């Protein structure tokens, strides 16, 4: 038995009788169970209880065993002095306040409806291969699931902006710097994300600003910091970049000793670090105040316009230095821009709006819902239960749901689990 189930029982009064009796013999009827408190303090606030015919208002604390009161050290916490009733599954010890006054305790082990217990045990039976509710996941009403996934997606964004807020505090709210570092990591994708992030951290952002408008200088900066301009180079363009980089090193006192070398292994040519770094260079050479441009975007087409760039002219016939290929414009594809929107732009816009006190949840939900879904193994398994992930908002929400609810057995905190249990 777990406390989350007891919270559910108390919140929705899944009890066999409307009249309870305390261990010491007082009768208790529930007028209102109180407001479920998910923060520190008693589990339910401002409950209304009739105790021996007298109406009382106060807080309710819930435990599996009454001795948990002491195990959780509530006797030393003044926040629990206001507890009116202690609700437990099993009574095994008397509980007292700090002034030795006994706390009224109700044991509900024999008062919970059998259907609620059976439904709970069935939900957490441990026989599932993917998620606890996989047998009944398809039965949940679409309206319930759609609304829940939107909420879970916003929860995911709330988690994503925690490190962004920390970074902002370190950089004195330098939004352009934050955007640059996040874009670099995203442009590196999974294989080179940490490498590109280390490049972005290896020099002051003022160097990028000093090179603004000059693609060649920015390419030299990024390629040089990445360690791609070392040794004797045979390619003429690489030699020019190398000379420019040596000049930048002296001018800005650069060092790349902390940079993680980028990888080419097992990457499609379109994702080679050479192309992605060149595209970054072009983006920052051709965009004045990129952060402001992004914040001022009002729809998906506006974002596409901001990121409508290609690698520099040299890369039309190259994927790596000195190796020629058929001529092709190396532009950012819409699928790659969508990835940038999901992993960088949306979290930053959400973070900025939060700190500015603006509400942008609806706009962000619409933007995420307009992007194609990811097709990883977890999303595919959810889709095998019911075809649900038809956009990026849902695929992102399902990843959040699996990790933070399903894997953690938080079924009673989940609208899906709660609905299935309630209907059972």
Helix content: 40-55%
Rg for CA atoms: 29 Å
User: Low-confidence spans: pLDDT under 50, at least 5 residues?
Assistant: none
Q: How does the overall form come out from the CA principal axes?
A: elongated
Number of helices: 17
Q: Please state the structural category.
A: alpha+beta
Order of helices and strands: HEEEEEHEEHHHHHHHHHHEEHHHHH
Strand tally: 9
The protein's oligomeric status is: single chain
The biggest sheet, with number of strands, parallel, antiparallel or mixed sense and barrel status, is: 7 strands, mixed
**Termini gap:** 18 Å
Give the rounded overall mean pLDDT. Answer: 94
Strand content: 5-15%
Organism: Rasiella rasia
Protein name: DUF2851 family protein
InterPro entries: DUF2851
Structure, explained:
The protein has helices spanning 3-11, 68-71, 114-123, 142-170, 175-187, 189-200, 205-210, 215-225, 236-252, 273-286, 290-295, 300-306, 334-356, 361-369, 377-385, 392-406, 415-423; strands at 19-21, 27-32, 35-36, 44-51, 54-65, 83-90, 105-107, 318-320, 323-324. It has 424 residues and is α+β, with helices and mostly antiparallel strands. Among the domains are: 3-112, no CATH class; 171-332, no CATH class. Helix 3 (114-123) crosses helix 17 (415-423). The longest helix is centred in the middle third of the chain and has 29 residues, at 142-170. The mean pLDDT is 94.
